[in-house]
Amino acid sequence: MEEKINREKYKTLGYNVLTLFLFLAIWTLAYWLIKSPFFPSPLMVFNAFLELLIHGDIEDVKLGMHIQQSLWRIFGGFTAACILGIPLGLLMGLYGRVYDSTKVLIEPIRFIPPVAWIPLVIVLLVGYFRFVFIIWLGAFFPIFIGTLLSVRGVNPLHIEVPKSFGASRFYIIRNIVLPSVLPEVLTSMRVGLGIAWECIMAAEMIGGERVGIGIMILKYAQLIRMDAIIVGIIVIGIIGFGLNEIFIFVEKRIFRWKEVVSI
Amino acid sequence: MEKELIDVDLSMKFDSLSVLENIRFKVHENEFLVIVGPSGCGKTTMARLLAGLQKPTSGHVTMRGESISPKVHNISIVFQEPSCIPWRTLWDDITMGLVIKGVDQSAIKKRAKEVIKLVGLDGFEEYFPKQISGGMKQRVAIARAYATNPDLLLMDEPFGHLDAQTRYLMQIEIMRIWEKEKKTVVFITNNIEEAVYLATRIIVFSKLPARIKAEYRIELPRPRKLITPEFLGVRSEVTEQCEVVER
């Protein structure tokens, strides 16, 4: 049984390697056909990657620094979004009145894209907090709304069981509501993290700072250095993928009791 | 002598829809009272009212003279729908009522082991609901309800979702448990055979809005056989009182 699962795993891995290989082959083929100075080959991109990693960019900032800085900003904004979004979502899910009475403010803000706030943010905030604010805006609503809806989706029967034994409201929230919403909260965190990662690109492209993966892309965009730009793009993709995988791994570990784990 | 435990005298409306009209009956200690009625006649509402999960529009449900409430009285209910808590092991699920009622740890352990044995779930304590069958899930719900030694045990069509064979086995089992730990049971069903098999007394509800149509005392000897002429006689008598709903 175990052996069979392992074989499946290797098979999946094999197909993924093949997909990657095919992609690189098509890319190389396209490079030969297009023959444009603005269309780099995989090898040229790889060289640019090594260059950026070892020697740094045109301002001598190494790729690792860019990544580290961007991650640090994501961390700030995402943490803020979780700290505010989860309790607020729980509160408003449990007390529908609070949400219903503040809907007029919450719902319109939710539909303003974080990018629309950028001009305001440039004027009002400086440095680190600019990024934190933009990321917070992007990540907050999926986390908040996801949590709120998950509370409303708790199976009423699961609440009635302890209620029929005379359980307190506190007991029900702690032992039924919280464990019941946890998987969905984690899923909405995962969605929020994805959006945060998208937002940082927008935020960093405002300029003003020297370090950050979005800023690095912008620097090379001005030079029309496609190889370095593509390095930036790929790094964004891979880090996003990595963060998502970490979340899925954690979900699988925590929710052993679940019938299926969402992907 | 029969001691009166619960007094019901109520009417229930949802907005303008009248569900229960002038329902008046008493529940006596240690009796196995079965309420039968066609589907959708407000039987579940009756169960929720008896559990104190809902208040009647008018009238009352009292237990030993006091308005019924899960915070005051020791009531357990087995719901019609599967009610296992998916993230709890069977052990944690079955002990829930005991924990809520503040029973001390060693007593919880002792009692939980007892009821788990009673419903035949020993060995499955650390399983999650997703790992067990539908019949076992319902036994978990029964064990959980039994664990707190309730003064009133409510069962709202507890076997409705089970296949015929499991249902039959569960009926035998519930009878065995009831004979062992004489409890006051109010059992709700739409299955007349089940009612006659289990009950010491049957109350027949009419279709919506529900009124009490008839009441029977069942004095057939136990264990009852489903095919004796006496059993079939009582069964057809009750059946005549039950209306068949056409939808």
Strand tally of chain A: 0
Biggest sheet character of chain A: none
Helix-strand pattern of chain B: EEEHEEEHHHHEHEHEEH
- The residue-averaged pLDDT of chain B reads 89
Q: What is the annotated CATH architecture of the domain at 1-73 and 200-247 in chain B?
A: 3-Layer(aba) Sandwich
CATH class of the domain at 1-73 and 200-247 in chain B: Alpha Beta
Q: Show the largest interface.
A: A-B, 19 and 26 residues
Major sheet attributes of chain B:
6 strands, mixed
Strand order of the largest sheet of chain B: 6-7-8-3-9-10
Label the structural class of chain B.
Answer: alpha/beta
CATH arch. level architecture of the largest domain in chain A: Orthogonal Bundle
- The helicity of chain A comes to over 70%
Oligomer: heterodimer
Provide the CATH top-level class of the largest domain in chain A.
Mainly Alpha
- pLDDT < 50 runs, ≥5 residues of chain A: none
Q: Assess the beta-strand content of chain B as a share of residues.
A: 15-25%
Separate helix tally of chain B = 8
Give the number of helices of chain A.
10
Question: What is the distance, rounded to the nearest whole angstrom, between the alpha carbons of the first and last residues of chain B?
Answer: 44 Å
**What's the count of strands of chain B?**
10
Give the helices and strands, then pairings.
The complex is a heterodimer of chains A (263) and B (247).
Chain A: H1 2-34, H2 42-54, H3 63-94, H4 96-110, H5 118-124, H6 128-152, H7 156-164, H8 169-204, H9 213-222, H10 226-254
Chain B: E1 4-14, E2 17-28, E3 32-36, H1 43-50, E4 58-63, E5 66-67, E6 75-78, H2 90-94, H3 96-100, H4 105-118, H5 134-147, E7 152-156, H6 164-180, E8 185-189, H7 192-198, E9 201-205, E10 212-217, H8 229-241
Parallel strand pairs in B: 3-8, 3-9, 6-7, 7-8
Antiparallel strand pairs in B: 1-2, 1-4, 4-5, 9-10
